[in-house]
Every structure is written in C-alpha cells, then in structure tokens.
Amino acid sequence: MPTMPQNPNLARELSLLLALATLWGSSYTFIKIGVETIPPVTMIAARTLIAGAILLAVLRHRQIRLPGDRATWRRFFLQACLNSVIPFTLIAWAEQTVDAGLAVILNSATPIFAFLLTVLITRHERVTPRKLFGVMAGLAGICLVIGVEALGGLGESLMAQLAIILATVCYAGAAIFGKNFKGLDPAVPAAGSLISGAVILLPVSLAVDRPWTLDPSAESMVALLALSAFSTALAFAIYFRLVQTLGSVGTTSQAYLRVPIGVAIGIVFLGERLSSTAWIGLFCVIAGVAAMTIPARVGTTQEGSL
C-alpha cells in the first residue's frame, strides 16, 4: 500500500489506535527491565537501530524505497529528534528511578501538549470549553503525580519525572510535525526517522557507554528486542498511518487508553504500586485527555477528528 486510503474505515482505525496504545503501554515495562543492565543511551541507540532495520527489511520486501532527496531526510532527522532521540532517551534515563506506572501516567499527557501547541503555533485546533477542561484536568493530574516530590525538594526522582514531562512535549511536537509526511507509506517516515535516530545516537553510545564492555542480563536483552520489534517498529508504522487518518490530536488520544494498560502491566509484571495521590492524578489525566479527544472522534476523519 504505497499511499494512504482516501476514506479510511473508522472501526479499523480505532482498532489500530487500541493496538498502538497496547504496544506503547507495554514499552514502559520493557524499558524498566532493559535499563537495569543496559545504559539508557545505548539501549535507545540499539532500539532505534533494530527497529529501523526491521522496517527497512519490510520496505525492501514490499519493494518500497526510501526517498533520496535531502529535504525529506532533513524532515526525517527532525522527526527523529522529536519522536525518538530526545523522548526515548529521557524516558529511559528517568525509568532508572521512576516506576513504569508513573512514567506512563506522566507521558500520557501528550494530547494536552499537542492541543496547546496547535493552539499557540499551528492554530488548527478549535478551542472549546470541554478541551479547556481537559487541559486543566490533565495538568492538575500531572501536578498531583509529581506534587509530593516537589514538596520534598528537587530530588533525583523529581528531575526524572520532569524529564518525562519534557519527553511528552516532544511527542506532542512530533505528532504535529508528522503531518508533513502525508502521502508517504506509513512505514517510510517510520523507518527514515528511526534510522536517523540511530545515526545520531550510535556515536554517542560508542563514546559514552563503550557497549562492548557491558554485560547485559538475558532479561534486559529480551526486553530490548521486544521493545524494538513490537513497541517501536510495529508501533511506529501504525503511528504514522494514524497521524494521517485521524490527525495529530486524534492519534495522541491513544494516551488515555495507554494509561490503564501501562499501569496494569507494571503492577502485574513488576509488582509496582501507586500511591493514593498518584491514583487520583491518574484519573485526572485520563479524564482530561478523554475530554479533549473523545469529541474529536465523532463525525469525520479530518484533522483533529475522526
């Protein structure tokens, strides 16, 4: 399928949205296991390299070539910075001290920041009372999650949580910038941006972590492979398709689906527990994101709505 369908099936796109939420919801647990024995930069360098190679193989099998012009590759590199290099590395670094469940809650605020960026910069999203409520509820939830750490001073855990918030802002920018790849097969910008991310991160990994000296555990290696193949390669291909069919804010609506999935995986497989304040913050974030995105999925399949 070299181009996007003109009139995508709504049920199919929503099924893909749920699949994307599940793939990304599980990524936080994979990261948590991976960074136990693999440094963050090296883990993300390997993640982008493996995922990019998988997508390149898929494109070759489908006889689809990557664009050769410099302008498109410049966009790939910018997309890589917004969607993988910066946020992936920040989240991996943060999860050395932050639970996977808290990471997924904080990172779920992507639609809130996507909406704010569209209002302030691109101005293609309509401001409504319901969306303003969503912004307020979501930001209140974030404050509840990190509030205890803030009262205790600027500790390591607070800095890690703020790093996840910065990653969330990057994802919001990536969702908006991803519209620049309209008309390309979804796997093309996915592969191009991941390859670009690997080109950026590999030299840093070699210089800083000296990966040949590392001794990662089998669990961390399995987590890295699952993270690369499923939560990155497959997820990115779905993501770029949905950005074109559902719009930037519509696509980021998977965040409120991702929260309970990611938190549940952390509880079941890592034995994590959320504080009562974090639970309240979780529900505020879900309510806020849902208030902003559910109305957008009624009607058509144009930008910002389904």
State Rg: 18 Å
In terms of quaternary structure, the protein is single chain
Strand proportion, as a percent range, falls in: under 5%
Number of helices: 12
The share of residues in helices is: over 70%
Helix-strand sequence: HHHHHHHHHHHH
Mean pLDDT: 83
Structural class: mainly alpha
Care to give the gist of this entry?
With 306 residues, the protein is mostly helical. It has helices at residues 10-34, 40-61, 70-94, 100-107, 110-122, 129-151, 156-177, 187-208, 218-246, 248-252, 254-270, 276-293.
Describe the structure.
The chain has 306 residues and is mostly helical. Helices cover 75% and strands 0% of the residues. The protein has helices at residues 10-34, 40-61, 70-94, 100-107, 110-122, 129-151, 156-177, 187-208, 218-246, 248-252, 254-270, 276-293. Helix 2 packs antiparallel against helix 8 and helix 2 packs across helix 9. It is globular and about 45 Å long. The two termini are 21 Å apart.
